[in-house]
């Protein structure tokens, strides 16, 4: 059997990155995590970093802005996954330059993990955000670096655990604000499953130079369906306030950051249906649950049980 690809994760100490590191070590890949030296002394992050070490991952010190550290880390591995955050999307050009110089990387997965930046109907400020991700795609393609772009749709931890409401950490029990008419389907994936599918894809020839969409069939739900699923679980009816598109667009324009960003994502998800409003053509994409039917993904139904 061929040896498993060696994987370098950037952003492993971030919200999503830790799930990718976990999936990588659990799948038996020699796993390397690029961390910034200062982060190791951060008490919150140091605990996480300890769990990486315990699980067998190797820490490498580095920074997106330190070219030599990137090249050195890249030379250790076959695959690089970036899970850097929104503020570092543009800086990934530095990683692309380092991958080009290292010359040994068989697959690069840039920080995407959301909507397809080439296929959406978003409004600002999400347009600019997705344009940043699209620019990184074009830079990767121009350098002819082998890639997979993971379009994971909406994280359950952001959109299901809150029922799409701002500033709460558990689904509401009294009132819910529904963006749009509530009849447009979104697609939800747990962060753990995003990690699992991402790692499955890294050395799969079927995902080479393709978009990997995560659309688990049981996790297509409209806002109304999501709310009614929750209502059935708590045996209670919520007061529903609908914000239709015209009003939502005004609200986005009048809101400060980050509210405008969250609302604009909600608009793309719940009003425009950007998670699933196009067919995945074989020329550009594949779908995770079809490629890896053995993954026992978490359904939204099961996910919500934890909050009852
Ligand atoms: N689909 C969805 O619902 C959804 C939701 C959230 C995020 N996302 C996407 O998921 C991706 C990851 O986002 P996130 O929220 O998980 O990110 P995050 O929590 O902000 O984590 C950022 C990571 O990047 C690292 N980093 C920052 N500056 C760096 C530098 N100069 N050099 C090296 N590493 C650096 C951070 O390291 P330190 O620990 O050292 O700071 C941290 O590990 C993004 O593309 C985002 O758009 C999608």
Short description, anyone?
By secondary structure, this protein is α/β, with parallel strands linked by helices. It is built from 13 helices and 13 strands.
Structural notes for this entry:
Helix 1 crosses helix 8 (191-201), helix 4 (67-74) crosses helix 5 (92-102) and helix 10 packs antiparallel against helix 11. The longest helix is centred in the middle third of the chain and has 17 residues, at 126-142. The chain has a domain at 7-151 and 191-214 and 279-293: 3-Layer(aba) Sandwich (Rossmann fold). With 308 residues, the chain is of the alpha/beta class. Strands 3-2-1-4-5 form a five-stranded parallel sheet, sandwiched between helices. It is built from 13 helices and 13 strands. Helices cover 40% and strands 17% of the residues. The site of NADP nicotinamide-adenine-dinucleotide phosphate (NAP) has 27 residues, from strand 7.
